[in-house]
Write a structure and sequence with these properties.
alpha/beta; Rossmann fold; seven-stranded mixed β-sheet; 5 helices; 31% helix; globular; binds guanosine-5'-triphosphate; binds magnesium ion; GTP-binding; magnesium; cell division; septation
């Protein structure tokens, strides 16, 4: 796929600001600093479409990215960083619940985890949340460039087991550094977008 257009439509604090659109949407969620924005830039071959930072928790709103006037990718704020306040956590939960419950054009969830670490309780909650709403999911293990060869198999298994991945929920090894997995991510995205 060639991305000839990729633009941020809106950063929405709540459902009143979701864009009016009938493009199919895939939501991209993961822990803070895991590499969500980097993945968006990598798969769209843009350098700074999505903001990449060293300060965790930079993305606080739902960012809607229009790709080729065909698809919408929705970047979710990273969860799980240490100094999130109770108020922010509550707001995050409400925002996601609104989205999952009300957004009719949603087609799936891309959950990103760090290939180096066991997924957290928050990751489990996120994927279970999507499953509860019957939203198809797939998982991307990013930062594969940081793994030693000997760790690859073991780490991917830990991710599968911790998230209790189902047969149809594929796990894709990925790296924004080496571009490993870009084609596989697009294959899964297109399946969801066209479903
Ligand atoms: P929040 O928006 O704060 O939730 O973060 P995010 O999930 O969008 O992460 P972001 O893409 O901003 O990346 C966080 C840090 O990880 C940056 O310093 C990136 O350069 C780095 N990073 C992202 N992906 C990779 C990768 O595949 N490999 C390596 N080595 N570093 C990565
Ligand atoms: Mg981000």
């Amino acid at each position: 796929i060639t991305i000839h257009k990729a633009e941020l439509v809106i950063s929405a604090p709540d459902r009143h600001s979701w864009p009016e659109s009938d493009l199919p949407e895939v939501v991209l969620a993961g822990r803070s600093n895991v590499g969500k924005s980097s993945l968006i830039n990598t798969i769209t071959q843009r350098k700074k479409l999505a903001y990449v930072g060293n300060t965790p928790g930079k993305t606080r709103l739902l960012n809607f990215f229009n790709l080729n006037d065909q698809y919408m990718l929705v970047d979710v704020p990273g969860y799980g960083y240490a100094n999130a306040s109770k108020t922010m956590l509550k707001k995050f939960g409400e925002m996601m619940e609104d989205y999952f419950a009300e957004r009719t054009q949603k087609r799936g969830l891309l959950l990103i985890v760090d290939a180096r670490h066991k997924p957290t309780e928050d990751d489990r909650l996120m994927i279970d949340f999507a499953r509860y709403y019957d939203l198809p999911c797939f998982v991307v293990a990013t930062k594969m460039d940081k793994l030693k060869r000997s760790e690859i198999k073991k780490n991917l298994n830990v991710i599968k087991e911790t998230l209790l991945l189902r047969e149809e929920e594929v796990l894709i090894p990925f790296s924004s550094e080496t571009k490993q997995g870009v084609d596989e991510v697009w294959d899964e995205l297109l399946k969801l977008f066209n479903s």
